[in-house]
Amino acid sequence: MATSLVSGPSEHLRPGNELGDSVIRVGVIGFGYWGPNIVRNFHGQDHSTVVAVCDKSPKSLQRVKNSFPGIHCTSECQELLTSPDIDLIAVVTPVWTHYELAKAALENGKHVFVEKPFTTNAAQAEELIELAERKHLKIMVDHTFLFTGAVKRIREFVDDGTLGKLYYYDSTRVNLGLFQHDVNVVWDLAPHDLSIMDYLIAEKPEAIVATGQGHLNGLANIAFLTLYYPNNVIGHINVNWLSPVKVRTTLIGGEKKMLVWNDIEVDEKIKLYDKGVQMAGNTEGVYQMLVSYRAGDMWAPKVEQVEALKLEASYFVDCILNNKTPFNDGHAGLRIVRMLEAADASLKLKGKIIQL
Amino acid sequence: MATSLVSGPSEHLRPGNELGDSVIRVGVIGFGYWGPNIVRNFHGQDHSTVVAVCDKSPKSLQRVKNSFPGIHCTSECQELLTSPDIDLIAVVTPVWTHYELAKAALENGKHVFVEKPFTTNAAQAEELIELAERKHLKIMVDHTFLFTGAVKRIREFVDDGTLGKLYYYDSTRVNLGLFQHDVNVVWDLAPHDLSIMDYLIAEKPEAIVATGQGHLNGLANIAFLTLYYPNNVIGHINVNWLSPVKVRTTLIGGEKKMLVWNDIEVDEKIKLYDKGVQMAGNTEGVYQMLVSYRAGDMWAPKVEQVEALKLEASYFVDCILNNKTPFNDGHAGLRIVRMLEAADASLKLKGKIIQL
Amino acid sequence: MATSLVSGPSEHLRPGNELGDSVIRVGVIGFGYWGPNIVRNFHGQDHSTVVAVCDKSPKSLQRVKNSFPGIHCTSECQELLTSPDIDLIAVVTPVWTHYELAKAALENGKHVFVEKPFTTNAAQAEELIELAERKHLKIMVDHTFLFTGAVKRIREFVDDGTLGKLYYYDSTRVNLGLFQHDVNVVWDLAPHDLSIMDYLIAEKPEAIVATGQGHLNGLANIAFLTLYYPNNVIGHINVNWLSPVKVRTTLIGGEKKMLVWNDIEVDEKIKLYDKGVQMAGNTEGVYQMLVSYRAGDMWAPKVEQVEALKLEASYFVDCILNNKTPFNDGHAGLRIVRMLEAADASLKLKGKIIQL
Amino acid sequence: MATSLVSGPSEHLRPGNELGDSVIRVGVIGFGYWGPNIVRNFHGQDHSTVVAVCDKSPKSLQRVKNSFPGIHCTSECQELLTSPDIDLIAVVTPVWTHYELAKAALENGKHVFVEKPFTTNAAQAEELIELAERKHLKIMVDHTFLFTGAVKRIREFVDDGTLGKLYYYDSTRVNLGLFQHDVNVVWDLAPHDLSIMDYLIAEKPEAIVATGQGHLNGLANIAFLTLYYPNNVIGHINVNWLSPVKVRTTLIGGEKKMLVWNDIEVDEKIKLYDKGVQMAGNTEGVYQMLVSYRAGDMWAPKVEQVEALKLEASYFVDCILNNKTPFNDGHAGLRIVRMLEAADASLKLKGKIIQL
Questions:
Q1: Rounded distance, CA C44 to CA C47, Å?
Q2: pLDDT one-digit tens code per residue, D284-339
Q3: Which domains does chain C possess?
Q4: Where are the alpha helices (DSSP H) in chain D?
Q5: Cβ A353–B352 below 8 Å, yes or no?
Q6: CB pair distance less than 8 Å for A299 and C295
Q7: How far apart are CA D189 and CA D248, in angstroms?
């Protein structure tokens, strides 16, 4: 039987409580590269606090103790999964462990915040979604980019018609390393763009073509994904772990405006171009068609600078306390996993189109 | 029967003549966007001179007269094709006219300099090659980039082992327009990279996967090509006529060094990075493998600044006068046309792999 | 007595003629680095044509013949200065020759287009202005930058109040070479910014402080100018012939908006920032003063791309034909020469302030 | 009498102790913008630990408690200045308080680490230096930039002759804010470059010319400094609190090589250019002199990435423990203060040269 991890009163929070005094108690499993950010953003907030962190590495636990002296540390995740003092489990571990940990958390009545990609396959994701719904628990998949000022601003430009009918989304996301040992570059880097496209583009992709190559350990370290959407919208993602330079550039073409999002820029992340092309003239023959170009001003709107993960953590806590479904829930996570599975299948078959 | 276009003695040059006084007399068909550069670079050289230009547009011919008062102007290409005063025909017209014009030139005993892409299909290219060989005439396909200081320098880095074993070639070549009416963006922009890869990479591609989309006139205006090579080398080309910004960036990854070629930079077009990744450790399991990164100096070697087309024109004249086969001959042009045909076929089948 | 340089009718044009058939006949003295641009832009225009070019170098004259076969060439500038077939003399020679040539041209009844800087000292400029006025002739000093789309756009932002009260103009204009033998870097590069400031800033500078150093031939190759204006406006110019990189960047600070003009950019030469600082709070003590920052959108307005020199040439021809005084006339040239003289004096005295 | 701030044994460390177990106990006064970095870098090191922090603001003290739970907090600086448990006082307060606090620390037998600029005038600096020497205590002035990988690498290029004879150092250090209330932009931003020049250039400056202007609160918010050195070396610093963009670019010209240091770049902070100019030919007259340009490769050497302040803190601790004089000691701080005083004097007199 689980013992109490924390001193003090142990009122177990439930969705729907009054927001006033409610504090979601978070247990974080995994304190590697991303874990510290998760702890920092859930900890000491108005309505959430991190009560325990679990990691197998003594070194990682020592880092927890140094930075967050008040938080309980353990190398046994069962302690967290079964503790009555924890309302929410954040799963910040390698992807192949997500399913097992999230399932245990849900079974123990805890909400789940899980790193992207959600699971290693769609069946796992579906099972977790079903389990959470049955137990009236929330799942949020950490697609952090959806909470950045840049992506939110681009979404506005889509929604308010600034860009006009969408033509394409073309992203380059390359750098040197960090090599993952258990997943290829698609599973590591593409979820960012897949989730952003899922968020920005109203329609859902119909098919995926993926090509790529592995040069070192058998796993693809360079890959190119094409996503076919209805209405001639096309998506393309270029991911690469062996690039000498870091590039985070997305071109988005619309009928009315075009946009460049360079996430490496400190200021001016988004540049909106009043540029375009129009076909004019009669349609008697292609040679008679006239193309007219429009090249006007460029505009770099100010982008909100608040840390995305802080907004995301706060949003999830709000969803739990007020029984709302987050937009980046398990279903959203599942859609991305399905695209990743399709990309993997296509990659293995050297570009064979995989219907979604 | 053809009448003489130029005054003065009409000694018809033949390959193998002494270089001393030999001057190749050039007739240029097409004076649109690129024609003026062709004229300028063949004209007034030590061993070549442009004697006539043909274009259907009176406006274009007026431009010839303004800039090159001594050159004969005509709207009838037959005049050039049959003139005994012309040794070399430069075909600077839309691609669907290349075959017919080049064939007529060869049949009339003239060498041929032809714009890229060589022809609209491989059969045409093969016929022209066979005809030229039978008549002991030279064909050069204008893959200008192969004569730039940048590409020549990169070739040196391949040849002398600086880059080490090649991993990938990944090029982004996008901008707003210029829309072509008769070809899609692949035939317009990809020949540059295809010919550069043909020049840089020792092995030949085995298969092509192409995806893309057309948003305006039915022809693809955005496309993504993947080329599979032996030994895990992979090539990728991103071409787009609807980009708000002009990008001309190629990443080349090698085992020893990595390279970024940004052709838009005035200086520092090539940056060579002493960066890389190595797999180390035992091979008992993928999780135990250690990746070590190397991130050292960057070096931007000085790149020759001579106009590429000037070097190319001079090289072709030299090939004719000394009976040498240019490396960018009809066979090189044919290889590129075969890749374009494969890309088109794959594009139509939404990424179906096409073996070369 | 001067002989006719050109065949055909020799009607000498005079200001005020009907614009219909009037053509200003231009003689260009000097065909070095900038001369070809002058010839190209005055030649073959609707209302101007270049009839003769003079240069001491046979090589330069050969270049004229190659590019402009119809233009008379000579090495004797007297031919041009006294020819009845020339209405306007363009003086495109080293600065120390401007006075003598312009004076001769004016004395012979010809309008004068003269390179910047106008003359080597203010007395010469004053004499030329007086002479031109007496003879009802026009002088234009070639401050080409005033006709660029960028400078005209900035002027609009000043005039329409976009920038608000002006705070500073701070320009960096550095590159490697070209070393001038007869003038220091201030006389070579600073006239650009001095004329732009003269054009943009309503008030005139009150004093100049200049510092700098010469490292090779005794003439300053690096220099820094500060211009004090009324109302706390300050100007600063950094010029340098020994910079490894070319920089052409001007910061302009205003109360309402700030601007960066990067003339090396192909597109987006001007970036307008909605940024600023405001002092608020009580004035009881400096420590209580609150500074509030405003950091909003950035906007890169489209800038006209027409060649500046073409507009300038056409404008001068229009001024002559319609008897209008160009804004970049001798008086404007004189103001710049006075600033250069003051800068030189200050430079020699290591920053001693020189009142204007 | 001071009470012990910390529990546990109170062995007071003295210079010359064996390094083995020695730990310098640090008290930090001031926990505003820079203080947290000071605490973080002195705390938990092998040979130093922060035992107490003092700040007048309860909010700041709360931040200390959150981040460093074990450190004693107080709003009374006397507690730190007189505590027997403190060996070293770090003065991280506004410049006008440096003298008083450092003096009290020294009088109480404590070493002093003090923010730049050292003091508000030279007399104060001289008194502190004399006091420290009399009491055998160390002073280090926090010129952090001297411990960056970039500055250390540039120093190597100076020392090993890579750059050749130095021609100029020209720095632009501009951004929006942060406005200081007690000092002008010269005292805020120029110490960085002044200390870097002091470190890089063997000779000392002979005179300073400064110009500038204040637009808001009477204090200069934009200023330009020229430093005259022996042997025609010249220095220039452009500082500005009202720039819409952040610039941190320094050009360094040498006889053999030239260098651009862009501190905003994440990688490739330093670019070394094999570029230069040589005067050749006879010396009969300036017009006959030939200038030859050399424009070769560019090289961006890898630059050490360790946090500069960490190295600086560790270096000061080592100096104390081993009785060594830091190169950035009080004398170095005094030299910078003298330059700042001279700059201020020149600024007030609109560029009047001030001899050093």
A1: 8
A2: 444 445 667 888 999 999 999 899 999 999 999 999 999 999 999 999 999 999 99
A3: 24-137 (3.40.50.720), 146-305+338-355 (3.30.360.10)
A4: 35-42, 58-67, 77-82, 98-107, 122-134, 149-159, 185-200, 308-321, 330-348
A5: yes
A6: no
A7: 11
For residues D120 and D188, the answer to whether their CB atoms sit within 8 Å is no
CA angle (A341, A347, A352) in 5-degree steps = 100
B66 in reach of chain C (CB within 8 A): yes
Cβ-contact A91, A119 below 8 angstroms: no
* Closest by Cα among C64, C277, C266, C60 to C168: C277
Q: How far apart are CA B182 and CA B174, in angstroms?
A: 19
d(CA B206, CA B353): 10
Beta strand pairing call for C48-54 and C24-29: parallel
DSSP D158: H
Is residue A239 within 8 Å of A210, Cβ to Cβ?
no
Question: Using the beta-carbon criterion (under 8 Å), do C297 and A298 form an inter-chain contact?
Answer: no
The amino acid at residue A71 is I
Query: Which residue in C124, C129, C119, C96 sits closest to C331, CA to CA?
Result: C129
Q: pLDDT under 50 in chain A at which residues?
A: 1-3, 6-19, 283-288
Q: Does D246 touch chain B (CB under 8 A)?
A: no
Does any CB of chain B come closer than 8 Å to the CB of residue A351? Answer: yes
% of chain D beyond a pLDDT of 90: 81
Shortest distance between the Cα of B350 and any Cα of chain A, in A, equals 7
Strand arrangement, sheet containing A24-29: A72-74, A48-54, A24-29, A88-91, A111-115, A139-142
Distance, in Å, from the CA atom of C160 to the CA atom of C155, rounded to the nearest integer, reads 9
For residue D40, give the chain A residue with the closest CA: A67
Residue C244 contacts B where some CB pair is shorter than 8 Å: no
Q: How does pLDDT run across A170-202, given as a tens digit for each residue?
A: 999 999 976 677 789 999 999 999 999 999 999
Quote the tokens at residue D292: 């030859």
Find, among A258, A255, A203, A259, the residue nearest to A231 by Cα. A203
For residue range A230-240, what is the model confidence (pLDDT) as tens digits? 999 999 999 99
Q: Is A217 on the interface with B (CB under 8 A)?
A: yes
Size of interface B-D (CB pairs under 8 A): 26
How many other β-carbons are positioned within 10 Å of the β-carbon of residue B155?
14
State mean pLDDT over C89-109.
97
* Distance between CA atoms of residues A254 and A161, nearest Å: 10
- Beta carbons within 10 angstroms of residue D6's beta carbon: 16
